[in-house]
Amino acid sequence: MEKSDSPKIEECLEVVPDPPEKQISYSAFTNGRRKLILFIVTFAGFLGPTSGNIYIPLLPLLQRVFNVSTTSINATVSVFMAVFAVAPLFWASWADFGGRKTLYIISLFFFILANLLLAVVPANIGALFVLRILQAFGASSVMSVGAGSIADITEPKRRATAISYFLMGPQLGPILGPILSLIATDGQWRWIFGFLTIIGSIVYLMILFLLPETLRYLVGRGDSSKGWFVKPKLFQKRTATEEFPKPPKPSLRIYWKLLKFTPLLLCSLNGGFLFASFYGVSITFARVLQIDYGLNVWQTSISYICPGIAMISGSLFAGRLLDKISTKIIKEHGKHIPEKRFSLQVIGLIISMAGMVGYGWCVQKHTHLAPIYIMVFLAGFGMTWVFVGNTTYLTECSTGQPATNVAIGNVMRNASAAISSAIIDKVISRIGFGWSFTIFGFIDLVGIGIVLVLMRYGQKMRENFELNR
Fold first, then answer.
1. Fewer CB within 10 Å: C terminus or N terminus of the chain?
2. Model confidence over 380-406: pLDDT tens digits?
3. Do residues 273 and 291 touch, judged by C-beta distance below 8 A?
4. Residues 94, 148: contact at Cβ < 8 Å?
């Protein structure tokens, strides 16, 4: 059997020597340090989604402990998701301006503090609401700021694979969260917040002593950062010897300007539409398994391994394939043109659409469980396939603010998920499971239309934006 020529993680992070006439590499960080940075930001990315999902299986217990209604305890989930969706806009814009590490240190401090207080303060519903908001505010930064860190140290032709590894953190959170909630046995619900405090503190120490600043405006390619250990400091002075454009100071005007950047807006909408349809699968999956097929809590939790494997494999496979296409594009055109890779997203959208439509009709016809698992796998595989391409493009689309771009994409994604969760039950009750997910699946046709527009006009729009910046 021949060895696969797909790039491995070492290759994705390794700086490929430039031709003699181009001796300057994209990043001066050693291969080992780039892998360490990738590991730390991926581990940090695991915290937020885990915090949201480790909590959900305990809602009936928490309702009894806090002596409140179902609506009130469910609202603690809603406020977490709302803050988690919007807060990255605040963190990301400052990370693009003042430094990545500063934002990691500040935001994760709030996260650890919130979890510590949740683990020890008396049960009070008002305190629960306030601390869940603080918990979400602190955890929300890492997805967008982490993508910015990856963009700082990984050249575009290697970046999709690096992004695919980074996304494993946020993708594993929703899968492992419900399983990890089993540590709250015998009603010991405070242990979930104690656990989050412990792993959050581990990540925090790694960031303090092992994670260097990577913002290119401040440190350039990282030439001045030597050794594996770094001295903890809240703010990084500018040491860059090369001239990198100064990022704009955060303001509402900057966000308005970015939202008028058509490729960024279309890419974010594409991700939002796709995640809205997949979220319909995600939130009905457990109920289908327990009510329609009689699975218990353990069996349902283990069943989430299926979409977990789908998302991880789809992410890694798409990342490697995107980078192989980038290499071919550079050979053919002499430069990296990110829009040339968008044709690959059509495949992911079709796979996801097939999975969602199939899931709906398998549930309605009450088939054997095996076809349902297969369809959920296809829906997750296609969704994350597209998500890797979208996230990579958001770090490349010429605004000079990769973390802010990814944050805008995340807002679109989370807002779409919130709308999907609000309407899915009503839609199913009116037209049935099969037709509901046929409609959700065919929303991906809008995504295919967006991809075709970006393939045709994206490069020109991006170049015009660069000229008028």
1. N
2. 999 999 999 998 898 887 656 888 888
3. no
4. no
Q: Which of 377, 332, 11, 335 lies closest to 160, judged by CA?
A: 11
Nearest to 79 by CA among 414, 467, 441: 414
pLDDT computed for residue 2 by the predictor: 44
Task: Please give, one letter per residue, the 3-state secondary structure of 84-147.
Answer: HHHHHHHHHHHHHHHCHHHHHHHHHHHHHHHHHHHHHCCCCHHHHHHHHHHHHHHHCCHHHHHH
CA 383/CA 179 separation, integer angstroms? 23
Q: How many CA atoms lie within 13 A of 109 on its CB side?
A: 8
At residue 406, φ and ψ (nearest 5 deg) are -65, -35
Q: How far apart are CA 63 and CA 394, in angstroms?
A: 40
* Cα torsion 399, 385, 166, 12: sign: negative
Q: Please, are residues 412 and 268 in contact by the beta-carbon 8 Å criterion?
A: yes
First to last CA, the chain: 51
Provide the pLDDT confidence category of residue 15 given band limits of 50, 70 and 90.
very low
Q: In this structure, what DSSP letter does residue 354 have? A: H
Domains in the chain, CATH or no CATH each: 26-245 (1.20.1250.20), 251-469 (1.20.1250.20)
Q: Which residue has the higher pLDDT, 280 or 297?
A: 280
pTM given for the model? 0.81
Q: Are 197 and 112 in contact (CB under 8 A)?
A: yes
pLDDT score of 9: 45
Considering only CA atoms, which of 44, 147, 49 is closest in space to residue 405?
A: 147
**Cα angle: 103, vertex 106, 107; to 5 degrees:** 80
Place of tokens 């689309």: 397
- Angstrom distances, CA of residue 430 to CA of 263, 418, 426, 427, 439: 36, 20, 6, 5, 13
HSE-up (13 A, CA, CB side) for residue 37: 33
Distances (CA, A) of 1 to 5, 6, 236, 313: 12, 14, 50, 21
Pairwise CA distance, residues 204 & 104, whole Å: 8
Q: How many helices and strands (H and E) does the chain possess?
A: 21, 0
Would you say 200 and 111 are in contact if contact means Cβ atoms under 8 Å apart? yes
Provide the CB-side half-sphere exposure for 365 (13 A, CA).
11
CA nearest 164: which of 7, 362, 387, 372? Answer: 387
